[in-house]
UniProtKB/TrEMBL annotation, chain A:
Entry keyword set: Tumor antigen, Ubl conjugation pathway
GO biological process: negative regulation of transcription by RNA polymerase II
Biased composition (Basic and acidic residues): 15-26
Entry-linked Pfam families: MAGE
MAGE domain residues: 67-267
Keyword 4Fe-4S among UniProt keywords: no
Region ranges (Disordered): 1-64
Gene: NSMCE3
Gene Ontology annotations for the cellular component aspect, listed alphabetically: nucleus
Identification of the protein by name: Non-structural maintenance of chromosomes element 3 homolog
PANTHER family per the UniProt record, alphabetical: MELANOMA-ASSOCIATED ANTIGEN MAGE ANTIGEN, NON-STRUCTURAL MAINTENANCE OF CHROMOSOMES ELEMENT 3 HOMOLOG
Automatic annotation (TrEMBL), chain B:
Keyword entries, A-Z: Chromosome, DNA damage, DNA recombination, DNA repair, Metal-binding, Nucleus, Telomere, Transferase, Ubl conjugation, Ubl conjugation pathway, Zinc, Zinc-finger
Ranges of compositional bias, category Basic residues: 273-283
Family recorded in the similarity comment: Belongs to the NSE1 family.
Gene name linked to the record: NSMCE1
The UniProt record lists the keyword Ubl conjugation: yes
Protein name: Non-structural maintenance of chromosomes element 1 homolog
Broad EC category: transferase
Entry's Gene Ontology molecular function annotations: ubiquitin protein ligase activity; zinc ion binding
Length: 286, 283
């Protein structure tokens, strides 16, 4: 029924492709790199007798099945990459999946985004306008009971992240690193001491969360000893909101969000800004 | 672009004929999406867990209407997944016939899902173990034999000590099962890689005489050599007074296992985790 890519008299190609993959996986944070072999595969298959697309002259002699397969590869690539919470660079997408289909990249990405949202409930969004990096946002609200039926542990580090995000917001959207540790020490989390749940808290906060774009970490100039400051990263604004974080902080203190009038006003304003119609979807900037 | 329009239609309206011909894709709702999202967090999941997951998803989305029969529920989702070349595949564990489910890739080659979790040399180690397992009579490859191949691995040099840990990682991630120092394929690996294995090792691959699927562990006829999965043996000989080989009619010399009964297990209150499976060499 479904034709899958086959090795047609090229005995080494599979091994080569696997090596490309594995190399791609070894080189960077995990990827399902298929290299250009992927697109060659697809073309090889469909010459077997895929249906030909009559209607779209701009895509050239590629069959509908090939396009479908390309979109499928792209969807899988995005899902797997996002699992690691590392933003997905457009250049990586082109390199590892798109290959020869570069001319229709925007269409492929759009189709993939549609499928991702319709089938899985994930929205593909650009991290920042014109950044050419993407993340997946869950359109479904996570529920506490999800944890009971999950196959993975979820991320135990989320708790720590929420605390740091709360600290940053309550302190006026910027906080010094020294202040963060002053607070975390009271919870038994130290920059220099290994933590049972979080492992290396300093690395987690200053490197991993930053890499995942939840936090921004900048050096404060002219400080001696050197100090850094934290702010919310672009992913945080996409995945959560000031109001949600304020509610979290309020819950932790067993109080009401309105007990912090300044922050509450700010969060309200943020909610209003979000409610205004979006200026565009996850269209890739070609 | 024509496909874009069809995609948009599919999302907003009742199922319509897709361009691929007569296939009718089902409708995805948030119940199905949550189910898929959570199913993806499991490499492979037992049917019991799948039912639990299904019920959970209905509950979250406040659907008090009757939960759809699992088979129909999954077929519905699979009809949507078809165009993405993935499917929720049902299989059974080779040792005791438990039904299991995994989300598998239909279109790609071997270790793509693994490729994102493991380094080049680790993937090659898996490949070597896979080959030994397929070539073996019993479906098991000894730790020693696998580790002896570390020098032949592609990529960064790996020491035996490290390889031992990598093998444990494979066990933890449900790609391999370990029994008494020997390794065989986990049902996850069999579900995901059956196609790849059949294509890559067409001469060495063994299949079951009853269900015709890939066979790694099983029983074989000592006369004519045909093989059967343990759960297939159980079903085939269930009410047979005298078990005989379906191919050559010779007396079947092995112990006939019991057919897997999920209800019996629930009564007994034993969980698979507590039971230590008995290791029987049936070849």
């Amino acid at each position: 029924m479904l034709q899958k890519p086959r090795n047609r008299g090229r005995p080494n190609t599979q091994a080569e492709r696997e090596r490309d993959w594995a190399r791609g996986a070894a080189e960077e944070a995990p990827s399902t790199s298929r290299g250009a072999g992927g697109s060659q595969e697809a073309r090889g298959t469909s010459s077997q007798g895929g249906r030909r697309a009559e209607a779209s002259p701009e895509v050239g002699p590629r069959s509908q099945q090939q396009l479908e397969l390309k979109v499928a590869e792209l969807v899988q690539f995005l899902l797997i990459k996002d699992q690691k919470k590392i933003p997905i660079k457009r250049t990586d997408i082109v390199k590892h999946v798109i290959g020869d289909y570069k001319d229709i990249f925007p269409d492929l990405l759009k189709l993939a985004a549609e499928r991702l949202e319709y089938v899985f409930g994930y929205k593909l969004v650009e991290l920042e306008p014109k950044s050419n990096t993407y993340i997946l946002i869950n359109t479904l609200e996570p529920v506490e009971e999800d944890a009971e039926v999950r196959g993975d542990q979820g991320t135990p580090t989320t708790g720590l992240l929420m605390i740091v995000l709360g600290l940053i917001f309550m302190k006026g959207n910027t906080i010094k690193e020294t202040e963060v540790w002053d607070f975390l020490r009271r919870l038994g989390v130290y920059p220099t001491k290994k933590h049972l749940v979080f492992g290396d808290p300093k690395k987690l906060i200053t490197e991993e969360f930053v890499r995942q774009r939840y936090l921004e970490y900048r050096r404060i100039p002219h400080t001696d000893p050197v100090d850094y400051e934290f702010q919310w990263g672009p992913r945080t604004n996409l995945e959560t909101s000031k109001m949600k974080v304020l509610k979290f902080v309020a819950k932790v203190h067993n109080q009401d969000p309105k007990d912090w009038p300044a922050q509450y006003c700010e969060a309200l304003a943020d909610e209003e800004a979000r409610a205004r119609p979006e200026t565009g979807g996850p269209t890739p900037s070609s | 672009m024509e496909e874009g329009r069809a995609e948009r239609r599919r999302r907003t309206e009742a199922p319509s004929c897709t361009q691929g011909g007569a296939r009718r894709a089902g409708i995805m709702t948030d119940v199905h999406r949550r189910f898929l999202q959570l199913l993806m967090t499991h490499g492979v999941l037992e049917e019991r867990g799948v039912r639990r997951l299904q019920k959970h998803c209905y509950r979250v989305h406040g659907r008090t209407t009757a939960v759809e029969e699992l088979e129909d529920f999954i077929n519905n989702i699979n009809s949507v997944l078809e165009s993405l070349y993935i499917e929720i595949k049902k299989g059974a564990t080779e040792d005791d016939g438990r039904p299991v489910y995994a989300l598998v890739n239909l279109a790609t080659t071997p270790v793509s899902k693994m490729a994102s979790d493991f380094a080049e040399n680790e993937l090659d180690l898996f490949r070597k173990a896979l080959e030994l397992i397929i070539d073996s009579e019993t479906g098991f490859a000894s730790s020693t034999n696998i580790l002896n191949l570390v020098d032949q691995l592609k990529g960064k040099k790996m020491r035996k000590k490290e390889a031992e840990q990598v093998l444990q990682k494979f066990v933890q991630n449900k790609w391999l099962i370990e029994k008494e120092g020997e390794f065989t394929l986990h049902s996850r690996a069999i579900l995901e890689m059956e196609q790849y294995i059949r294509e890559t090792y067409p001469d060495a691959v063994k299949t079951c005489n009853i269900c015709h699927s890939l066979l790694i562990q099983g029983q074989s006829c000592e006369t004519c050599g045909i093989r059967m999965h343990l759960p297939c043996v159980a079903k085939y000989f269930q009410s047979a007074p005298e078990p005989r080989c379906p191919h050559c009619n010779d007396y079947w010399p092995h112990e006939i296992p019991e057919v897997f009964n999920p209800d019996k297990e629930r009564e007994a209150g034993t969980s698979k985790a507590n039971k230590k499976p008995s290791r029987s060499r049936q070849h």
